Amino acid sequence: MSLHITPLLPAALPLLQDLWNRQLAPHLVHTLAHDLQSPGRAHGQNAVMIWRAEQVAGCVGWITLGIAEDGCAYGSPLIAADVEVATALIGVVSEEVRAAGAQRLRISVRAGENAKREGLQQAGFSALFEFVNFSHALPLAAAPGLAAGLHAVDSGAIDWDRLHACYAETFAHVPNSPIPAVAALREEWLAANPQASLVLADASGEYQAFALVDGCSVEGVGVRHGWRGRGLAEQLYQLAAAQLAGQGETEIRALVAAGNAASMRLHEKLGFTEYAPRWTVYELRL
């Protein structure tokens, strides 16, 4: 039966979530609707579904935020029932990001996503690096006081331009971390877990560090160059973990590029362990 593409249809998302969970079991992910309709994917406009007759067979979203900086776009999430579907979706997302000016396309593969992996390899993608899935049971450790010279910014008083400048500097060379626009960063932050997220400012009001937490997962920790080497990233984790424990969470999670030696050392020092198989990031030059 032939395949056909449609825009994202929210009513079909539970079926796609079920398909994805069957592939990923036992390491389930329940964020498909959130991911496909995120600000980075233009609230679902940068996403399509694929059908075989009346049966939904997959979907793909794409992120073009990083094209202006480094020419790289991202296909995520890509869910495919079989290799034929994966091949069709890879073709769709490749054309979309190429039209947006991308020179490279990256797509990650988790354990169990065998059809997607085969489709990527057939399309000429090459394995680039791995992501490590870390977790730690709560409580983590007693939360320390803030570093001298810094104070926490109230979540209702964040200056989004200053936070964006801090984010852009600290994530400038982090793999697979395109810098969102100010409005998108604000929306992402407020839709995550703003009570557990943190922004630290110095006496002049400049933002020097932050931790963005979504659910129980640390989505990003950034420390500006002048404050590095003082254990600030460790403090941010401890403070975020204390907030999560207060919310009734039982664990804290993080996703780290295996080649990020400093971040790997930090998580191992804090006692994090790998709770799920690593993801592989594949890349194709367009």
From TrEMBL:
Does the keyword Membrane belong to this entry? no
Family matches, as PROSITE patterns: GNAT
Q: Which GO terms describe its molecular function?
A: acyltransferase activity, transferring groups other than amino-acyl groups
Q: Where is the N-acetyltransferase domain?
A: 150-286
Keywords per UniProt: Acyltransferase, Transferase
Q: Please, which domain of life does this record's source organism belong to?
A: Bacteria
The answer, when asked if Chloroplast is one of the entry's keywords, is no
Which one Pfam family would you cite for this protein?
Acetyltransf_1
Name used for this protein in its record: Acetyltransferase family protein
